[in-house]
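Q: Convert this sequence to structure tokens.
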Amino acid sequence: MVRWRAEPTAGDIVWCHFPDNIHPRPKPRPALILVVFDDEAPQFEVRVAYGTSQRTTALHRGEFAILRDRNPAAYEAAGLSYDTKFDLNQTIDLPCTTEWFSVPPAAPHGQSPKLGTLHPSLVRALEAAFRAAAE
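A:
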């Protein structure tokens, strides 16, 4: 288990082994960093929201999507390969280690788990999903 050297940033979209119970899932997926905890810097912990490419047009309370056809600039900034929705009802705090994060297939940001970033045009959608998830 190695800690990532690059400092994570809220709004980064990363390649994450989002856990199932207490074990990382074998299939990495996109996750959105919501909060960075730097109390133990340079050892960071982050709160991430679950991302999936399944049923991206059927949004539920607490979800928002990044869709290639609806917002090409946001899709490109996110570094995604497929339309993806993020579920703010499914969040977890994880240490920034190779146990939970890995380098994505094309490695767009070098040897880092970062895929891309949340485009500013999606901040309102994120805020609405956050409020809905809190209800």
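Strands lie at 12-16, 19-20, 23-24, 29-37, 45-52, 63-66, 84-95, 114-117.
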